[in-house]
Amino acid sequence: MTALPSHPEPPPPLPLGAGLRSTLPLPLGEGRGEGAQLKHHHATRAFTLVELLVVVSIILVLMAMIGSAVSAARGSQRVQATQALIARLDSVIQQHYSSYASRPVPGATSAADRGTRLRLLATHELPDRWATVQNIISGTSTTGVPLTPPQAAYAGLLASSTSAPTDSFADAECLFMIVMMGGVADCLSCDALGTSQMGDTDNDGAFEFLDAWKQPIRYVLWPSALQLPPSSGTPFFSSTQPFTGGTSAPAKGGTMRPLIFSGGPQTPFLPPVISDNGADVRAGAITNFDAEAKK
Fold this sequence. Notes:
- The protein is about 40% helix and about 5% strand.
- It is built from seven helices and five strands, in the order ααααααβββββα.
- It has helices spanning about 35-45, 50-100, 110-125, 130-140, 150-160, 170-180, 290-295; strands at about 200, 210, 220, 260, 285.
- Helix 4 packs across helix 5 and helix 5 (about 150-160) crosses helix 6.
């Protein structure tokens, strides 16, 4: 009987993981050569100096754009605030100025004489210089005519003042006096005026209304030479004197009325000499006639 072959002995077990290395992925870079190692190095590198400079430049440009937008918004807010203040002041002045058309003028001998007397009255009830107020005190303003309540208020104010106002911002100071102390129109909008809108720019004891750039709001009673737009070469107002009656010479602004204006962002804004010949309101100024001039 043939003997059965003996069962072969099983091979000894391999150590854990042995023989499997060829079937598992190699660690990154192992056995893959120098090119693979360089590729892995480039995949994890930091920013270069040029790239950092580009990023910084973009950030600076964005910051500059944001800063410009904020500055423009603030400038717009200042313009709007100044326009609102000028509108309130204009409402007080124009309300009184318009009353002259129906004011009785005792002793007037003709329409021309009536107009002359009304202009003289307006000059001393709505003065734009301290010299006019001095004339009221000295009695040379309206010979033979009793002082009106506004004139008496101005004369009393200047006579009792412990300081002497200068001519630097005399027109602006007279505007403040008319609105706040003259009572020409009961100052219906004075309650809306805050202390931040008032100041004494030249430290002479007389206050002015201030625009959003903290500069005095200027005032001209008879702005005959006003040009809007500035330097246009065409007078804004008619050459016909106010209160003369009849048909006035044509002009965009009609008959002459008091001018109230701010230099706007031009700080400080120093216009030519304020006089009865008017004021040259330069570009950038804000006036009570801007909306009318744009029509």
